[in-house]
Design brief:
The protein has about 130 residues and is of the alpha/beta class. The protein has a single domain, classed as Rossmann fold (3-Layer(aba) Sandwich). Helix content is about 40%, strand content about 15%.
C-alpha cells in the first residue's frame, strides 16, 4: 500500500515512514502538490496507486463515492479520527499507527475492499 498524506499532516510523518521502508509522500513536501484542490489530489492518486490519508472526509468522501460509482480505479482513503490532533506531539503516534497499517496491508487495494475506507487506529497519548 502506498500513501499520500493530506496537507494537514507533517512531512516528518512521511519521512519517518520512508525510513521504515514504506512508500509515502506528503503534500507539503512536494511543491507541485501544494495548493491543489482535493479533487485534483484524489484524481491523480489512482494513477500513482496511492491511498490518501486524511481527516477531511467532508471533501474526500464524496469524491470516493463518485469514483466508486463510476467504476474508476481508486485506492481509497485512510481516515484519521478527528480527535487525533495533527500537532507535533502526535507524530510518533501517527507514524506507529501508519506503520502498523502498512505492515499489515501490503496489498494496494485493501481500502477498496473495505468500502473505500480504512479507519486508522491511533493510540492515545499515555499518561506517565
Amino acid at each position: 500500500m502506498r500513501l499520500l498524506l493530506d496537507e494537514h499532516f507533517s512531512p516528518e510523518i512521511a519521512r519517518r515512514l520512508r525510513d521504515l521502508g514504506h512508500d509515502v509522500i506528503a503534500v507539503k513536501e512536494r511543491t507541485e502538490l501544494i495548493a491543489m484542490s482535493d479533487s485534483v489530489h484524489f484524481a491523480s492518486m489512482g494513477d500513482q496507486r496511492r491511498a490518501i490519508v486524511t481527516q477531511d472526509l467532508g471533501d474526500f468522501r464524496p469524491l470516493l463515492l463518485q469514483a466508486m460509482n463510476a467504476g474508476e480505479k481508486t485506492y481509497g482513503l485512510i481516515c484519521v479520527p478527528s480527535n487525533v490532533r495533527v500537532r507535533r506531539d502526535a507524530i510518533d503516534r501517527m507514524v506507529a499507527a501508519l506503520d502498523r497499517l502498512l505492515t499489515s496491508n501490503q496489498d494496494d487495494e485493501a481500502a477498496v475492499r473495505r468500502g473505500g475506507e480504512i479507519w486508522l487506529s491511533v493510540a492515545s497519548r499515555s499518561s506517565s
